[in-house]
Design a protein that fits this description.
With about 350 residues, this protein is α/β, with parallel strands linked by helices. Helices cover about 40% and strands about 15% of the residues. It has 14 helices and 10 strands. The strands form 2 sheets. The chain has an 8-stranded parallel β-barrel with strand order 3-4-5-6-7-8-9-10, surrounded by 5 helices. A hairpin with a 6-residue loop joins strand 1 and strand 2. The chain is globular, with a radius of gyration of 20 Å.
Length: about 350
């Protein structure tokens, strides 16, 4: 397993990490993702550790805390071998203090996560969403107190816009609070919006991308094809409306390119999609999830080899979408392009 720095921090993380959204299985969304219990989770953790995957990511909102509980049982007795990452801010109840990133909410959420995970510290504590109602100075001061208390090692965010992340980073710099080192983002061959604003921000500010849903909400598993119905076991039957949208023809064009490269390399479609992400700028780690051992072992085949420049270019072309304003002049007009070369051409990577 390759290890990379998480953004500009000193924390080394595996190129592939395990997303525990399949643990617990409570509710309509997470029940469709998976229903892995503690015994099954321990077996998946065994396989991950044998392969060098040491980081495990979860959230309090995953199955109403059950994912953290199951992960805690699965890592019991080997806490010093793993990096534990969790998130908070999304609603955990209907009360006025059950959502957001206020001081009281963050402290309670951290204590609850420590209890459910059976640990005395979190290696990475991330805000699952931006809270527009709480001043960023209050959020950063609270997270800083948790770091100083030894309950949190590093902090990060997830699903922030560019201005939200930059406002927080600037406030941290101004007031001497710990800076965010990670941004957990949606990024895939059929969802490349991350590249237009958040990737340049990450390069400039040293934010390491932790990629969620790298297979496009289950669309790049190799089981979906043009002109055929969804496979019976696909979670898309129940969760398509929750996930990022994608036009059918765009999806099928990407799948056609993946199929061609699969023929050339002998690799599975999801392995190719994951390998493409591992070669992108700013990507520190890609989260892989698995309902069972077979899925996990297939995803592990994404490392230890690299797509050729020609194959990367083929996937880039198939997955390209026109840039939104204000970025399209920089993509299409020479005068703009000379001032700001495409970020995906940059040779360096925050990894």
């Amino acid at each position: 397993m390759e290890y990379r720095r998480l953004g500009a921090s000193g924390l080394m993380v595996p190129a592939l990490s395990f997303g525990a959204g399949t643990f617990g299985g409570r509710g309509p969304l997470f029940g469709a993702w998976g229903t892995t219990d503690a015994r099954e989770a321990r077996r998946l953790v065994d396989i991950c550790l044998d392969a060098g995957i040491t980081m495990f990511d979860t959230a309090d909102a995953y199955s109403a805390g059950a994912s953290e509980e199951v992960l805690g049982e699965a890592i019991k007795g080997r806490r010093d071998q793993v990096i534990v990452s969790t998130k908070t801010s999304l609603p955990m109840g209907d009360g006025p203090g059950d959502a957001g990133s206020s001081r009281s909410r963050l402290i309670r959420a951290c204590e609850a996560a420590l209890r459910r995970l059976g640990t005395d510290h979190l290696d990475l504590f991330q805000l699952h969403a931006f809270d527009a109602g709480t001043p960023v100075e209050e959020v950063l001061d609270t997270l800083g107190s948790l770091v100083r208390a030894g309950k949190v090692r590093y902090t990060g965010v997830s699903n922030f816009s560019g201005w939200q992340a930059m406002k927080s980073l600037a406030a941290a710099e101004r007031h001497g609070h710990p800076r965010y080192v990670a941004h957990q983002v949606y990024y895939s061959l059929i969802g490349r919006d991350y590249e237009w604003e958040l990737m340049p921000l990450a390069l400039d500010q040293g934010l390491g991308a932790i990629v969620w849903s790298p297979l496009g909400w289950g669309r790049l598993t190799g089981r979906i094809r043009r002109g055929t119905p969804l496979p019976p076991g696909s979670r898309l039957h129940r969760t398509a409306d929750y996930g990022p949208p994608v036009a059918d023809e765009h999806l099928y064009g990407v799948i056609d390119a993946l199929d061609e490269i699969a023929q050339e390399t002998g690799k599975a479609v999801p392995q190719i999609a994951l390998n493409w992400l591992l070669q992108r700028p700013t990507v520190s780690s890609v989260l892989i999830g698995a309902r069972d051992e077979a899925q996990l072992r297939q995803n592990l085949g994404a490392v230890g080899w690299s797509l050729s420049p020609e194959q990367m270019a083929k996937l880039d072309a198939a997955s390209h979408r026109p840039a939104p304003y204000p970025y399209f002049p920089y993509e299409r007009q020479e005068g703009f392009a000379r001032l700001n070369p495409p970020v995906f051409a940059a040779p360096d990577r925050a990894a």
